[in-house]
Amino acid sequence: QVQLVESGGGLVQPGGSLRLSCAASGTIFSINAMGWYRQVPGKQRELVAIITSGGSSDYGDSVKGRFTISGDNAKKTIYLQMNSMKPEDTAVYYCHAFRSRPYWGQGTQVTVSE
Question: Between vectors from CA 59 to CA 8 and to CA 79, what angle results, nearest 5°?
Fold first, then answer.
């Protein structure tokens, strides 16, 4: 089993920045990839960013150039630096890990508003 604990959500003004963290614990060896997804009510969960154990990363089109994912492989912790934030970034952000099957954190609310 893998447990994921997110932190760092909150309220930020448009144009501002926020940093999310996600720490994995439990059976963390052989985790292949970790990442962030987000979801707003009535819509499907969408990919924000993902990073593999080899260090490769990928981003959803709507966040490219604004968000950066990074990770500490030894600590099995990932970070999402979110810059130039927009109201449409408002969502619940979920940490994700894949090790034989997907694991999800409980989610953290991010709100971008004046």
Answer: 25
β-partners of residue 91 are 110
DSSP 112: E
DSSP lists the bridge partners of residue 50 as 35, 58
CA distance 106 to 108: 7
Q: Give the pair of three-digit tokens for residue 33.
A: 């990839």
Structure tokens at 84: 């130039």
Torsion of CA 16, 111, 4, 56, to 10 degrees: -50
pLDDT tens series, the chain, 114 aa = 899 999 999 999 999 999 999 999 887 778 889 999 999 999 999 999 999 988 899 999 999 999 999 998 788 899 999 999 999 999 999 999 998 899 999 999 999 999
The candidate with the shortest Cα–Cα distance to 62, out of 94, 41, 37, 42, is 37
Residue carrying structure tokens 């709100």: 111
DSSP 74: T
